[in-house]
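S1.2 Input.
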Amino acid sequence: MVGKKFTSLIVFLTLFLCLSITNVKAHDSTNALEMVLFPAELNLQNGESQAIVLYLNNTSEHSINEFTFSLLPAENSLAFSCPDLKEIKPKTSQLLDCMLSRQGLTLKNEKFEIVTTYQVASKENPHNEASSQKITIGLNAQTVLNDLAKIEINPKDIVIREAEQPFILIEIQNISEYTLEINSLEIRHPGFIGFSSSNPSYNLSADCKTSNNAEKSVVPLNLSLKAHETREIPMTACLFEGGTLLGQQAIILEFDANWTENKASNRSGILRKTLSINVETFAGSSSIISVLGVPSFFLLPGFLMISIFLLFWNLLPHKIFKINLEPKSINFWVLSVSLSLLFTWIGSQSNNLQYFTNFTMQKILKVWANGIMWGFLLFILMVIAEYIVVLSEKNPRETDSPKTIFRKMKRNKTSFPQKFVLYKSHYYWIFNNNLSEKVWIIPTIQCKYFGNTAENDQAQELIDDIQTGIKPAFSEETKQELDNLIKLSKGFKVKFEWKESLKPIKVDIFEVDQQKNIDALFME
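S1.3 Output.
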């Protein structure tokens, strides 16, 4: 009774999953995900497990995610599982190692489908789709071609760069006692990679200039491999102009073949082989970023901007902005990452600047040139900003407090005044008189003491010493006196204010009356 209920539940779940898949919304007549599995035909005994490799190729312009993998129809004796897959970016492929296990002597079915459901992450129209591939499982399933032939690809590590066409040698070895007729070779690859061969019969003549975005190349072979015979297929790979994706790219090779067993039984099958091609922009690109100490090309724009800025900035003396950034400091790399992120965001608004996903030599050079240009522009802007700040610090302003005037006196090496001038019935002193027609005049300073008795006496003694010992020229003693006044005002021991709420004024030199000897520069 329990077994019947369990079987009914399995059937119900199978039907429900089938209905769910048939109701998946279709966006186009073709699915965004192209799926190939191998082996597609296998012998699986009770208690055995078999690795199933899924080749998943995103042919759309959008990322796809939210993957689920299932084997239909469901069998109690079979368990199918795949590792988690979060996302496949546009126009890229992924190899997924799944596992099929058998725990039972009987199989109700021999023909199955591996079904993949996923979501196409389109901003305008996000939707779900499903792709499937057939697989045959049984005790007496057809012998797969992988048991009859072996493929070797040399070199083992293939690197492809712009303007380079690496040589690839495919070696097919018949390890069976049969004669294998290899009819054709189908190469599945990203659209920006092309293949060519010097053998005209292979019909591979990619010019590597104009890509047709084809992601499949079919090569007619018509090779007859006798028992234990080996054949070689030479070809070259190249990158099409117009942009590539860096990193490891999955390539899948499928050989269509047939053979005869016992002089009567005609058999056919597919021999599959995968390889990875490492795509780089140019030779030595990894060495360049290693010498510079940049972790990746992603950080290159920010690194160049800051480095070029510091190169020019450190050549000049600076009075206001003291910038000390070491390449190994955390502040340096925080700025580098921040500027690179900004550069990336700006680049995402233009296809020509998507340098971290779509590479060409021209784009790398453009990134390099832009990094240097923006670094130099940042240097110019900082020089202008410092000049503006220096001007504002050089001359008084009407809003300046006495403490600010002390700081500007120190910066301009201006000594304390020895005479007052009369302006509108009030006494002022001239700030840094350079004999120009316009001068800044500064009012008398009023002092208010807030310290204890000892501190007040010390502050008053310091101020009295300044008033009684005014020097005609700026000296180290004057500098020390100004530092002491600034220190007093910062510590809130003394509050300096303008007498009678007056303020610094810029006037015509002819508006002030005859100078008079100073009686008191500071007043209580």
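S1.4 Remarks. The chain is about 25% helix and 35% strand.
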